Amino acid sequence: MKFELVDRQGYIPDLNYGASGQELSCFIPSDYPFQQVSYNNGEGEVIIDKHTWHFFFTQEGIGIQLVDGVVTLKEAEHFLLSIKSRIWGETHQEVQTLMAGVTQK
To answer: What is the top-level taxon of the source organism (predicted)?
Structure first.
């Protein structure tokens, strides 16, 4: 399942990537312990609570994909809102949370 966090104005704050092996900490809220699995050019995968999540950039914002594991929609929503707050802050109201799929061409 893929999600996107998209600012209506196209704004993504500058991200402060973590130290080597923890670069993706800029996406992960502090109350989610994680293990980074991969990292390449600002994108990669982490394991959180036995679930693998892939973080990447889209044309409009930041993509988050559940690669391995099962979560409820409510758990995913809570996680995504925490990521939104981590990246854009608590008061930023312009970010939409979207579910994404493959568009037929």
So the answer is: Bacteria
The rounded distance, in Å, linking the Cα atoms of 57 and 10 is 12
12 contacts 27 by C-beta, under 8 angstroms: no
Q: Which two tokens stand for residue 43?
A: 């994108």
Residue 17 lies in a domain: yes
Q: How far is residue 61's CA from residue 73's CA, in Å, rounded to a whole number?
A: 21
pTM value > 0.85: yes
Residue 33: inside a domain, yes or no?
yes
Average the pLDDT over 10-36 and give the result.
Answer: 93
Taking alpha carbons only, the member of 48, 51, 43 closest to residue 15 is: 43
Residue 90: count of CB within 10 angstroms of its CB: 8
As for how many domains the chain has, the answer is 1
Domain membership of residue 9 as a residue range: 2-100
Residue with the two structure tokens 């594991």? 69
Determine, yes or no, domain membership for 45: yes
- Nearest CA-CA partner of 51 in 71, 31, 22: 71
